[in-house]
Every structure is written in structure tokens, then in C-alpha cells.
Design a protein that fits this description.
With 262 residues, the chain is α+β, with helices and mostly antiparallel strands. It has 5 helices and 14 strands. Strands 5-4-3-7-13 form a 5-stranded antiparallel beta sheet. Strands 8-12-9-10-11 form a 5-stranded antiparallel beta sheet, with no helix packed on it. The longest helix has 30 residues. The chain is globular and about 50 Å long.
Length: 262
């Protein structure tokens, strides 16, 4: 087992992790025979996106939350539940305020104000006022290692450093909010040290403060058009696919009968 011998309650968790790792490369190619592909989720929130080409999410109410490709669940989650469910470490959620600066929609959070990306659009539910801002740890970087497009700079104080081998999870306090970011493995940062974090504004997620629904839709991978609502395009596609499958047997039967007559 990884990391030496596991003891007590760790044994089951270790076995589960190893089985999941072994399954990741094989289950992705298994054809799904159900109308709505779905998956179970393990503790780290990573397995679903690597096992299937589309996922379903059910919240505490038992209602289906979103059905979509893993990349869309990650980049355009329908709500806070989905956003926090996929990805490890989980997405940071901080308080923010939606406003308008020089006629352009902007968001205030963690002591900074930035206009929203011109390639994204607000939903009909969006309104000026309190919002929840989502920041993925991999998008919140150490300023020294950040690419040029990470134009926002946030000052923070390191609270916890978790070395993970190939990287380190750094938890820091920024403008009174606790956030987690991913750092290079040998950055050398220490607890209570002041650091600068960098963020690409185009990677922001915005959610309605009351409902938790996303209010900012970002372009999907490949530059395709934005769906009318998050996940709607994929749901429509699923319905079309079911319709095609329902007509498929009739088409084949008609072709077979034509061949028999000829």
C-alpha cells in the first residue's frame, strides 16, 4: 500500500484510494447504457470527473443538480453545491459584492475590485449587491510563480502549509477570509509569513448569495457559444440523443424490410 503499512481505520481508506486509482484508467472507456450518465463520488471529489464523460449531482434535497461533461462541471458549475463538490482541494467561497464601474459590471472581494471578463456574461438572476465569489485553489497562485494573465494581486498571511510532495497546499488569511491555494513544492513559505497571491479575473466564479445558483456564465472549452443557462445545452443534447435513439430502431427496421423486399 502507498505510504507504508496502514493501521486501524486507515486500512479501509487506503484500500479505497488504491481501488479508485486503479479504476480511473479503465472505467472512462466503459460504454454507458443509461439515458442519463451518472456517477458516485468518493471523498476527494475527484473520481466522478475521471470516470465518466457526464456526471449527475444530487444535493441534500435529493434533486438532480447538474448533468454535463466533467470539464463543464468544473468550469461552469450550476451552483455552489456542484462547485464545491468537484475539485480537490475544494473551491474557496468568499463574500463579495456585484457592482458597476464606468458602465462595466465588476465585483469587489478580498479588498480588490475587478471588472468581469468580457467573454463571460451575467445571468438574469444577477443583481447588484451581495454575492458569493468562488476561487479554485489552482487559480489562486503564488505571485512569484503566476503567469502574466494573473493580473490581480492579493495580500495574505500564511496560516498553514501542507506539503503534498509534488505541490503544497497553502492556507492563508486574506482580508479576513481564509483561502487555500496551490503552491510549488519547494516555495519555502512559512506560517505567519506575508505573501502575495495572484489571480486571473477570468477564472472567477460568482453565485447568488441567497439561492447559491451561478450568476456568471463563462465560455465553454473550445470557444463554443455560451448556453442559455448553465447545463441547459447538455440537458437539451441528452434529450435530443434520447429522441434519436428512440427513432433509431424504427429506421433500422425499415431498412431491413426494404432489403428483404429487394
Amino acid at each position: 500500500m502507498r505510504g507504508g503499512a496502514a493501521r486501524g481505520g486507515d486500512v479501509a481508506a487506503e484500500i479505497e484510494i488504491e481501488l479508485v486509482d486503479a479504476a480511473r484508467g479503465t472505467t472512462a472507456n466503459v460504454p454507458l447504457q443509461v439515458a442519463v450518465p451518472c456517477a458516485t463520488c468518493g471523498g476527494d471529489g475527484v473520481q466522478p470527473g475521471t470516470q465518466v464523460s457526464a456526471c449527475s449531482r444530487c444535493g441534500g434535497s435529493g434533486r438532480l443538480q447538474q448533468v454535463d461533461a466533467p470539464e463543464t462541471l468544473y468550469d461552469n458549475p450550476a451552483n455552489i453545491f456542484v462547485a464545491g463538490f468537484i475539485g480537490s482541494p475544494r473551491m474557496n467561497f468568499v463574500r463579495g459584492s456585484l457592482t458597476t464601474t464606468r458602465g462595466v459590471a465588476a465585483v469587489e472581494f478580498l479588498g480588490v475590485t475587478t471588472p468581469l471578463s468580457s467573454r463571460a456574461k451575467l445571468t438574469a438572476e444577477a443583481a447588484d449587491g451581495a454575492v458569493t465569489v468562488g476561487l479554485r485553489p489552482e487559480d489562486l497562485m503564488w505571485r512569484r510563480a503566476a503567469p502574466p494573465e494573473s493580473t490581480l494581486t492579493l495580500s495574505a498571511e500564511v496560516d498553514v502549509v501542507e506539503p503534498m510532495g509534488h505541490e503544497a497546499y497553502v492556507t492563508a488569511v486574506c482580508a479576513g477570509e481564509t483561502v487555500t491555494s496551490r503552491f510549488p513544492p519547494r516555495s519555502g513559505v512559512r506560517t505567519r509569513e506575508r505573501i502575495e497571491l495572484a489571480l486571473n479575473p477570468a477564472r472567477l466564479h460568482l453565485f447568488d448569495a441567497r439561492s447559491g445558483n451561478t450568476i456568471l456564465q463563462r465560455p465553454v472549452a473550445g470557444g463554443a457559444e455560451l448556453p442559455r443557462s448553465v447545463g441547459e445545452a447538455r440537458v437539451d443534447e441528452s434529450e435530443e440523443g434520447r429522441s434519436e435513439r428512440q427513432h433509431e430502431p424504427h429506421t433500422r427496421s425499415a431498412q431491413s424490410r426494404a432489403e428483404e423486399i429487394s
